[in-house]
Amino acid sequence: MAKVSVRQVRFVPAWALLVLAFALGAEAAGPKRVLVIHSFGRDFAPYDTITSVFRTDLARRSVEPVTFIEANLDYRRSADEKEEHSFVEYLSARFGDAPPDAVVTVGPPAARFYLRHRAGLFPEAPLVMGALDERAVPKVGVRPDDEIVAGKLDLPGLVDNILQLLPGTETVAVVIGASELERFWLAELQRELAPFASRVRFEWLTDLSLPQMQERVAHLPPHSAVLYGLLIVDAAGVPHERQDGLASLHAVANAPIFGIYENELGKGVVGGPYSSQRLRGEHIANATLRALGAYSGSQPRLDVVGFEPPVYDWRELERWNIDRRRLPPGSEVRFKPPSIWEEHRVAVAATTTALVLQAGLIAALLAQRARRRRVEREAQGLAGRLVTAHEDERRRLARELHDDVTQRLAGLAIEAARLDGGAGGTANAVVVRSVREGLVELSEDVHALSYRLHPSVIEDLGLIEALRIECDRVAQQGRLDVSFDARDVPRRLPADAALCLFRVAQEALRNVERHAQARNVDVSVAREDGGIALAVRDDGAGFDTATRAGERASLGLASMRERVRLLGGRLDIESGRGAGTALLAWVPLREAA
Question: What CA–CA distance (Å, rounded) separates 79 from 587?
Fold first, then answer.
């Protein structure tokens, strides 16, 4: 590389140096890394919606790429000092010498944990504490440049909402769990709802397991309501997802349930003023953007998000016969199914007009359907007669071959044997012997052809013996190992059912011999579902049934399907490339048609 002198560098334009420095700085900066510490897990309600909105809004609005690194404390159970120390070591090792660009805590336990260990983790990283209530905002360890996004729950307003909708309420059952956070809220509720003690009686369900809570809300006295507060861990120490707990109580409650959070609307609560998790997630994203921009202040920035205007579930209002005239002014009612006239005013008018025309069309279609069914019955009868005629012709040809041609060939073979005994020359003897052997072989072939045309053994010995003989015949060819199994099959079956199953098996074995490239074939027949089921399975190459379904069916397969259909049965083929083929046929046991 050529050397550049100091003199040369002096003449480089200043703007070029600025562009180069900016490019190198942008390349080295990389995405912003945001550590998110969850109190109970990313998917734990009500924090799940807050976290989801926060992540989406921050990633969308940030001018620089953002990478989220998430860690779960799972404070649904008590964590000892050793576990916290291990978690601190994990976070330190996770980031090494490069601390995150910002730390976001979700929920009060995560905020308290991070403030306890901030000095040993990332003391210089800006901190955003989100998903808190203003009552739970930490007073110790907070720095002037910290961001706090808190909600403001109007607890007396929740009871005011219940009494406004149900002025005759005498009992309010409060659902709240037994974790440390829930014990805090229990004390807050008891303190702030004390002024209502002269009007209603509060039942605190904090000392009950979820099954016991279900039992209690199912047998509340008349004029009761349920306030669904928090259910993180019940009194039995069992953790619960918020939506699951609400669903289980809603399924058995004999009184209306009122909630706090936005995502409970439509899940079983009546409604009222609510805390919007979506709005709180957006505020946390705003605070994180300020933190990433190196916000500096003289005191921590506190952003308080209050209740939203009341919203109610029309279905719950109807279920508990709540007079909608009692709703506060400006209330929104959701989930009300619109009337047919409101939703489809134009469509209803058009439909009414069309009904008159459709009535005539329906009458014509009914007449056409009747004619079509008559034609289908005639076609089905014709198909049945064709199959019967085909079998009759097979029977006649088989009898003709057996009784005439086979006998005549046998006679010629006998005469050839006599000539063989009296032939004088060696050459003549060889010719005569060859003719005799050919006649014997031809006689056997004609006999086999006669059997295939019409196996009289079905009429003489029944379906099972006929199938066993057919399997033995195929096995004697030497190319396939054929096994046969029969279970609980009557010896005498209706003639049409027995012949149908035999023909299906015969055609299936013929297909295996010709196309399957198989080594083993299993043939089974059994009584099943009021009929007889036949299965022919091979271990051959198989085929793609989806591809084959689009191809034109072979004559043999079409014949099998038609035979089974005429008896009211069904025929299925299961196959896959390299997985062999299974042909499954079933016909009902009934008298011959």
Answer: 66
Q: Please count the CA atoms within 13 angstroms of the CA of 512 that sit on its side-chain side.
A: 30
Domain boundaries, the chain: 29-152+275-307, 155-259, 342-387, 460-593
Q: How far apart are CA 436 and CA 133, in angstroms?
A: 108
- Is domain 460-593 classified as CATH 3.40.50.2300? no
Q: Is the peptide bond before 46 cis (omega within 30 degrees of 0)?
A: yes
Average pLDDT over residues 118-140: 92
pLDDT at 433 over 80: no
For residues 354-375, average pLDDT: 86
- 7 pLDDT exceeds 60? no
Strands 531-538 and 520-528, bridge-based pairing: antiparallel
Q: Mean pLDDT over residues 259-269, rounded?
A: 92
Bridge partner residues of 535 (DSSP): 524, 584
Q: Is 140 exposed, middle or buried (0-12, 13-18, 19+ CB in 10 A)?
A: exposed
Highest mean pLDDT among 9-13, 263-267, 359-363, 437-441: 263-267
| Per-residue pLDDT reduced to its tens digit, 28-38 | 457 999 999 99
> Which among 546, 543, 534 has a CA at the least distance from the CA of 587?
534
CA distances from 578 to 511, 543, 583 (A): 16, 7, 16
pTM recorded for the entire structure: 0.54
Extended strands (E) in 186-241: 201-204, 224-230
Task: Give the CB-side neighbour count of residue 544, counting CA atoms within 13 A.
Answer: 4
Domain 29-152+275-307 in CATH 3.40.50.2300? The answer is yes
| Structural fold of domain 155-259 | Rossmann fold (3.40.50)
Give the pLDDT score at 70. 94
Strand pairing class (570-575; 581-588): antiparallel
